[in-house]
Amino acid sequence: MSIKHMLEKINEVLCFGGKQLRYKHQSEVLSCEMHFSIFLPAEATITAVPVVYWLSGLTCNDENFVTKAGAQRFAAEYGIAIVCPDTSPRGVDIPDDPDGAYDFGLGAGFYVNATENPWATHYRMYDYVLDELPGLINKAFPVDNDRMSISGHSMGGHGALTIALKNTHRYKSVSAFAPICSPINCPWGQKALTHYLGGTPNSNNENWLDHDTVMLVQRAGLSLENVMPVLVDQGDADNFLAEQLNTQLLIDTAKEVGFPMQIRFQAGYDHSYFFIATFIDEHIKFHAQHLHN
Questions:
Q1: Where does the pLDDT of residue 205 fall: very low under 50, low under 70, confident under 90, or very high at 90 and above?
Q2: Which helix (H) or strand (E) segment is 123 a member of?
Q3: Spatial distance between the Cα atoms of 45 and 134, rounded to a whole number of angstroms
Q4: Of the residues 154, 173, 175, 182, which is catalytic?
Q5: pLDDT digit string, tens, across residues 167-178
Q6: Of 5, 119, 187, 248, which residue is least crowded by CB atoms under 10 Å?
């Protein structure tokens, strides 16, 4: 079966001279049907274009960024595609938080490969984002995966940073809005990693450390082998800043080990898509500088 026949188009609209599209497909990695959205600029009709993968946060799916961030205007300006995967596997047979909470299970895959039952069969978002989806996109659309960057918000910011820092050969740049910088040190992360990966917050579990941006920066900075362009924006009026995000810990760690990254506090901004929409032009421009270099 051809790649085109593996995809079912759900929607297509004209947008800033390009196309905003939505598809569904059967994921072998996640063992379920998945949705993704993709914006293709006008240049994609004549040549393969660079691409930014966007990872969304808790409770979101592939459409939140598409409808709220206003990124298409700037992606069209710089001739960049944007791919938005869902945030977790979905379906009636996919296990969810037994308590129905928003911060675990459906809509909260945390971009890790789960090792614990009943999550291990489906919750393999790390492999899906890193390999399966880009492979599908590269074969089905005029997108150049050799010029690929990644970005995200909150849980998706955590995903973007950790995936990029562990795969610097794959990505030209990484950016994040209000990322969960150290999931081993916050309630959201501790809950997710306990269920998906096993262990406890105090067990010094290597699998946990491997999905923590602060720990990855500490390790990379000590050898400076995995340095890449990084941009992080954080609103100082974010109500999750103190308990969940640990931005200052990332700043301090990067400074301590000499890992160069641009982390900006934006006065008065919160955790919402209003914050993202305000600065998304600067993030697209940041990635364009590295994707077109």
A1: confident
A2: none
A3: 19
A4: 154
A5: 999 999 999 999
A6: 5
Q: Which residues contact 151 (CB under 8 A, 6 or more apart)?
A: 52, 53, 54, 55, 157, 160, 174, 175, 176, 177, 283, 287
Please write the tens of the pLDDT for every residue from 18-32.
999 999 999 999 999
Q: In angstroms, rounded to a whole number, what is the distance separating the alpha carbons of residues 210 and 250?
A: 15
Place of tokens 């103190």: 242
pLDDT of res. 219: 84
pLDDT band at 206 (very low <50, low <70, confident <90, very high): confident
Q: CA–CA distance from 142 to each of 19, 23, 84, 131 (Å)? A: 12, 15, 16, 17
**What does DSSP say about strands 174-177 and 8-15: parallel, antiparallel, or unpaired?**
unpaired
The CA–CA distances, whole Å, from 75 to 95, 133, 156, 234, 263 equal 36, 20, 19, 22, 22
Cα within 13 Å of Cα(191), Cβ side: 15
Alpha carbon 238 to chain centroid distance?
Answer: 19
**DSSP code of 44?**
G
CB atoms within 10 A of CB 157: 27
* Domain limits, the chain: 3-291
Return the closest-CA partner of residue 239 out of 278, 272, 204: 272
CB-based contacts of 132: which residues, under 8 Å, 6+ apart?
Answer: 27, 28, 29
Residue type, 256: E
| Catalytic residue list contains 238 | yes
* Angle, vertex CA 51, rays to CA 34 and CA 119, nearest 5: 30
Residue 4's pLDDT is 55
- 154 is known as an active-site residue: yes
pLDDT (tens digit per residue) in 42-63 = 999 999 999 999 999 999 999 9
CATH fold of 3-291 reads Rossmann fold (3.40.50)
